[in-house]
Amino acid sequence: MTTLAEGQKAAAVRRSGSGKRAALVFVSRYGTIIGLLAMIVFFSIAAPDTFPTRANFLNILSQASLTAIIAAGLTYTLVVGEFDLSVGFVASFIGLIVCGLMANQGFPIPVAIIASLALGTVIGCINGLLVTKVGINAVIATLGVGTILSGIGFSYSAFPIAVGIPRDFTMISIGRVLFGIPNPVIIMFAVLAILWVILNKTDLGQKMQAVGSNIEASRLSGIRVDRIKLFAFMTAGFCAALTGILLSSLLGSGTLGAGDGYLLNAFAAVFLGSATLREGQFHIFGTLIGVLILAVGFNGLSIFGAPTHFQPIFKGGILVFAVGLSALARRYAASA
Amino acid sequence: MRIRGIEKQFAGEIALRDVNLDVVRGEIHGLVGANGAGKSTLIRCLAGVTVPDRGTITIDGAELRPGSPRASEAAGLAFIHQELNLIPHFSALENMLLGAPKATRLFLIDWKASGVAARAAAERVGIRFPLETRVSELSVAERWLVMISKALVRRANLIAMDEPTASLSAAESEQLFRIVRDLAGDGVAILYVSHRLDEVLDLCDRITVLRDGTVVAREVRGRLDKKGLVQAIIGHDVGPGGQRARRAVPRDGTPVFAARGVARGDAVKGVSFEVYPGEVFALGGLVGSGRTEVARLAIGMDRLEAGHFEMDGKRLAVSDEADAVKQGLALVPEERRAQGMLLDQSVGFNINVASLLQLRALPGLPFVSAGKARGRAERLMKELSVKAPGPAAKISALSGGNQQKTMIARWLRPGTKVLILDEPSRGVDVGAREEIHEAIRELARNGVGIIVISSDVEELAILADRVVVLREGHVTGELVGEEISEARIIELSYMHGSELAEPAEGKGKGP
Predict the structure, then answer these.
(1) B396 with A2: Cβ contact below 8 A
(2) Which one of A257, B176, B302, B362 has the minimum C-beta count within 10 Å?
(3) A71-83 pLDDT, tens per residue?
């Protein structure tokens, strides 16, 4: 069998080297970045007064920030070869809980936030244990946990929790502590930087990449695969909780189902990102590019006054396109 | 059936060279050869799974269209592989009729009418269980009967059987032989592939021996004895070993690694051996003899049912692979692609993945030093002469030999006390093989306990200082230094269960 596989590989290598293939590799590596720049240039020319302004760029980053945080956590689960479909539900649920803790339990803001982040991490841990220890397929486990959370959220408060939220809490999202940059943007860059460092500069991160590359080989190399996966799920839970908290702060209320939509955005962004620079591998920088493509796209659509129903068409289209691009990139990487 | 001049190459390696083979109706034709001699490839060509590069196959005078399993089936060829391609949750009857034309009534399958032929076939091979029984509830022997019936339902006139008795008891084997003889008596041709030479000598009317893709002997029954057969399989009259100066390894002191009566299921039935520091120890035997299974037990991939392993004289208890690595026991697996390489990563990443803690920039902080990592990778690549542009090159772009060197380099680290190498030179060219062997000897000289597992007797004869040969989960013998020769290893590999020296058994089942 080995010889057969190698024969096919050799044949693939022989087929390679054509200009068409080189172009495809180039597109699969830099296509997303080029696409992002092209969109920016296009919108800047088409709407020179409204699009290329500092205020609008900050607006775009601001809109991108929540998606970026949740998508970065999701990236971790994909790096280790798993999935987390619960992130949107976790964001909604935690957004509700953090408001409830302040409004109903009268927790001070920092305590409510820390407790909510911890809860999100615990939910991620439960996801991870279901996948690694019980052996449930990640898609099913996280979808189940997410659905349960939406039910618990409903029984916790079917109506938005808006009364009794401290003003300081809403200021977290609205405030601009540094150079007039909205706080969520700063938080996004901080989270992305930390996750990037962990993934690329620590032995934990290298082990995550090893696990995502080949589980069996990782195990034989002495890596405790289950623990690594658990860490990824916990990170995803933490990031989803953080997004949920920021979302509630932005809305000034805890609203049922408010964060559900982030799931699809995050997936679209992560898969777009996986086709950036690294041919089908998931990574933090790529995820940021993916998020920006979505944010710029949405922003451009609204500037041109495209009807709202256009947004899901764009989002779904981008998701299919992104996953397709990522699959193609991986195939070409495999035959290289 | 007539095969003329079949040739097949895989990635430049010749699998079959000008093979001619005739099988006539009513004949039981034995096909033997060492692992990799080309038996499977030949069968795959017949089955239409593999397209030969050259040559023709004719069935009853009509040429067979190559590369078409349907054409092969239509021509009356049937194949029964070791893995028995049956659907477990279908009944025996459904399996027999799978893919065969069935009688229908109102577009629904009329099982009663369709089953007539199947029941006749079942009776012919002596099936005594109800055909409605699910295959998953049948024994291996009963599954064989289902497979044979399935072939008969299709009116197969040539049935190729691959290692039919591998997992059958003596009585079950006898029953199978009787059926095979009956079928041959009815004019069905049988192509019988087996490693059990006694069986082949006893059962087959003619025997064809393959070696390195070439037919090297063809004899009718009685013209060949076991010794002659073994000689044909390995090729040359092998003199007493001595292809190289073997190290005289002091065998006193504590073995660095030992197995004490380890057992699990049918695969490993009480295996004991000792590995001394400084020697290249090897486990020989045929595929399926339990060598890889012993490695899996040692490394914690499977649970032991009896016995234990020792390292440095102390009882070794590993909970899983990661624990084994932590305790200094590592495996370079047989399936490099599936179990060894991180295929989408760089050579450097692959070399360093098991040494990340030692490569931290500052002890106590979780950061990996890129400089240390690159340095280690470059040093080891040079040491093992891994041919690649640099540590950043993708491992998928390397040749098999260089990939394998990378796998070995992964374990050249202070914590490795015992290294098990399963088929270390599979898919590796001759030059790289020599370099890999030298690396293995060097590791042994440095006091690392080495266990080489190989089906390649030539490799064992060249490389090992001591060989323990397994057969069907038992130790059949141990060869040391000058005693090691290809012929002796083969002899022990093919030793039949009944010839087993009792002590081996006793040692295994010990306290």
Answers:
(1) no
(2) B362
(3) 999 999 999 999 9
Whether B298 contacts chain A with CB within 8 A:
no
Which of these ranges, A6-15, A119-128, A158-167, A190-199, has the smallest mean pLDDT? A6-15
Q: Count structural domains, chain A.
A: 1
Distance of CA B291 to the CA centre of its chain: 9
Chain B residue with CA closest to A199: the answer is: B367
Residues 6+ apart with CB under 8 A from A44: A51, A52
Using CA atoms, how far apart are residues B338 and B322, in angstroms rounded to an integer?
17
Residue A262 lies in a domain: yes
Say whether A201 and B397 touch across the interface (CB within 8 A): no
With a cut of 70, say whether residue A203 has pLDDT above it.
yes
Q: Strand, coil or helix: what is B191?
A: strand
Place of tokens 């305590």: A111
Residue ranges in B340-421 assigned as alpha helix (H): 347-352, 370-383, 400-409
Task: Please report, for residues A284, B264, B328, B337, the alpha-carbon distance to residue A216 in angstroms, rounded to integers and kept in the order given.
Answer: 25, 21, 18, 10
Pairing of strands B206-211, B214-220: antiparallel
Q: What is the pLDDT of residues B60-84, one digit of tens each?
A: 777 778 777 888 888 888 888 766 6
A2 domain-assigned: no
Which contiguous run of DSSP H or E holds residue B17? Answer: strand B13-22
- The answer to whether residue A9 is domain-embedded is no
Q: Are residues B309 and B445 in the same domain?
A: yes
A221 in Cβ contact with B354 (< 8 Å): yes
Contact indicator for B242, B270 with CB cutoff of 8 Å: no
**Domain endpoint, select from B389, B414, B439:** B414
Residue of B215 and B367 predicted with greater confidence: B367
Judge if B192 and B228 occupy the same domain: yes
Tell whether B360 lies on the interface with A, counting CB pairs under 8 A: yes
Domain encompassing residue B388: 343-414
How close, in Å, is residue B328 to chain A by CA atoms? 10
- pTM of the predicted model, to two decimals? 0.74
Q: Could you tell me which residues come within 8 angstroms of residue B415 by beta carbon, excluding any fewer than 6 positions away?
A: B325, B326, B328
pLDDT of residue A246: 94
* Whole-number Cα distances in Å, B269 to A120, B173, B265: 50, 20, 7
Judge: B331–A220 Cβ closer than 8 Å, yes or no. Answer: yes
- Indicate which CATH number applies to the domain containing A41: 1.10.3470
> Do residue B88 and residue B30 come from a single domain?
yes
B445 within domain boundaries: yes
Tell me how crowded residue A281 is: count the other CB atoms within 10 A of its CB. 22
- Classify residue B337: in a domain, yes or no: no
Q: Would you call A202 and B339 a contact, using CB atoms and an 8 Å cutoff?
A: no
User: Angle between the A87-103 and A262-274 helix axes, to the nearest 10 degrees?
Assistant: 130
Are residues B301 and B422 both part of a single domain? yes
**Could you tell me the CA-to-CA distances from B25 to A318, B2, B184 in Å, in that order?**
63, 11, 7
Tell me: the pLDDT tens digits for B425-438? 877 776 778 889 98
CATH number, position B247: 3.40.50.300
Chain A: nearest CA to B352, how far in angstroms? 10
Q: Quick one: CA torsion of B391, B395, B401, B407, rounded to 10 degrees?
A: 80
Average pLDDT on A111-138 reads 94
**B435 with B499, same domain?**
yes
State whether B103 and B14 are in the same domain.
yes
Domain identity same for B89 and B230: yes
The helix/strand/coil state of B224 is: coil
Give the model's pLDDT for residue A333.
62
* Tally of structural domains, chain B: 3
On whether both B156 and B38 belong to a single domain, the answer is yes
Q: What is the pLDDT of residue B14?
A: 66
Structure tokens at B162: 């691959």
Q: How far apart are CA A82 and CA A86, in angstroms?
A: 12
ipTM exceeding 0.95, yes/no:
no
Answer whether residue A235 shows pLDDT above 90. yes
Asked if residue A23 is part of any domain, the answer here is no
